[in-house]
Amino acid sequence: MSEVLYRKYRPMSFDEVVGQEHVIKTIKSSIKNGKVAHAYLFSGPRGIGKTTIARIFAKTVNCQDPKDNNPCNKCNICESVNQNKFLDMVEIDAATHTQVDKMRDIIEKINFAPSVGKYKVYIIDEVHMLSKGAFNALLKTLEEPPSHVIFILATTEIHKIPATIISRCQRFDFRRLKVSEITECLSKIAKKEKVDVESGVLDFIAINSSGGLRDSESLFGQILSLEEDNKITLKEVQEILSVADMSIAVNMITLILEKNYDQAIEYVNKITDDGYDLEQFADLLIEFSRKLMLVKISPQMEGHFTLEMTSEQILELKEIAQVAQISQIVKIIREFVKCKEDIKSSIIPQLPLELAIASIHIDHGNLLTSKDKNDYNNKIAKPIKKITEKVSESVKQSGNFIKKSITFEKKEDINQEIVEEKKEDDLTVSVIGQTQKNVVDLVEVKQEWCEILEEVKPLNHSLTAFLKACQPVDVRGNEILVSCGYPFHKDKLSKVENRRIVEKVIEEILKIEVILKFISQDEAEAMGFEISETDLSNKKSKRGSDDDLVNSALDMFGGEVV
Questions:
Q1: Architecture of 246-367 per CATH?
Q2: Staple partner for 5: which of 77, 179, 221, 420, CB 3.0–4.6 Å?
Q3: Sorting pLDDT into bands at 50, 70 and 90, what band is 390?
Q4: Counting beta carbons within 10 angstroms of the beta carbon of residue 159, is it exposed (0 to 12), middle (13 to 18) or buried (19 or more)?
Q5: For residue range 93-149, what is the model confidence (pLDDT) as tens digits?
């Protein structure tokens, strides 16, 4: 059976320990000056070296030939400690020795002199798991211990240790390791294991170990056990560990801050299709947004993120923070915190994320800077109000818009839906165009329709075939409503790239900026517009075919149904 990495490469001396310099410096100094305390308390997260330093400490104080306050690792005592055979070092798992009777059995043996070494060292791991009675039994020994006994208590939950125990120990708070420290350690292991590691792999592992070296070594060992070619790529690591990279969150937040909401929605669905855990993805979004907010408020906060991010990621974080608005970041955090709770119960896994993006999109007007708000009011809000008033007046004065009261109501309902469905960018272009030029004249559009078809033909022959079955029926400011003979035509012409071709041709002919809105013939009739006979209508009756695809093909390539 192969040995796990965190045991195989466990530090054998203080100088080999990664991080915790403040602890090591103090302990080495106490050993050098002969001022070793009778009890120590090591606290901190898991896998950062508490038990390892305790073992090295026990080995050093008993070493027969210490070197610079480090164990020699050559004498009999050092070798027996390394092989877990040293009788004067007792490791106790408090999780399995919680009862007071077991603690009393251990304490009774304390009075016996060391077998080989100078000190008998008791290492009690996860000491917070002891019962109240066991703590009371230990307390008396900590008050008056024999001179040959050293207690080293280790815990990950210092708040559960009674104050009476803490006051009788020298306390050391261990810190989580920086990403750079873990990466450096893993790099040495990779060289010793003779594996080729792609750039970014070790950083990825270090970030996902939450500052714990043991966890990072366990993850690295898991990856090595599944590799056959001794070459590790970042993509393989992400697939093996099923963990999303921070860069995915960065990409998502960047899209939202740039207001590319459509791309953000597509990105969410891509993440879902790739099989990433969406709850973890939401966690990453919240975590990165929080860091963004803190750096935006206080640039000095970047120093607190060295435990979780690489120097390149921190630099990217600062660059994004410079251009982001604090109101944007706060809104993003609030929406993704809410969606995190909804992901678990959602029938469609990605729906809460999509709703969060949509909610941010809806409130984008509230996220603008003061300058942006002025531009928004001057260029969009005020012109829209004027256009609305002008259209309302036109509706009142024009008898062509009102045939029957019921027809007018239907028309107004559908008109409202069309206005609400218009995209923001189209609306902006339309408003700016209207503030600069006169509105479009429907009569002029109809008169120039044949010329428009001729100008479109060399650009895209298929569009000309579709437009033959269409006719302009109404204008609203600079927006032209075009009725399409078939739904198939409407779908094709409504595509952005096709619509823009026709719009540019009309703009060149009419010398005015326009926006086209394609509607079906049924919609046009429901709105009260009269649909005149077109060439397509005549051809349709002669062909005797109602098939949309066949008719479109005949329009595009010519011919008749026989």
A1: Up-down Bundle (1.20)
A2: 221
A3: very low
A4: exposed
A5: 887 766 677 777 777 888 888 888 899 999 999 999 888 888 888 888 888 888 899
- Given the candidates 1.10.8.60, 3.40.50.300, 3.60.110.10, 3.30.70.260, the CATH classification of the domain at 179-241 is 1.10.8.60
Q: What is the three-class DSSP state of 511? A: coil
Q: Where are the domains of the chain?
A: 5-173, 179-241, 246-367, 390-557
Predicted pLDDT at 562: 54
Predicted pLDDT at 402? 33
Is residue 485 a contact partner of residue 519, using CB atoms and an 8 Å limit?
A: no
| CATH class of the 390-557 domain in this structure | alpha beta
Pairwise CA distance, residues 24 & 32, whole Å: 12
Q: Which of 208, 211, 187, 206 is nearest to 198 (CA)?
A: 187
Give the whole-angstrom CA distance, residue 501 versus residue 493. Answer: 10
Q: Residue 152: helix, strand or coil by DSSP?
A: strand
**Mean pLDDT, the chain, whole residue set:** 78
3-state secondary structure 340-363: HHHHCCCCCCCHHHHHHHHHHHHH
274-309, pLDDT tens digit by residue?
Answer: 777 888 888 889 988 999 999 888 888 887 777 677
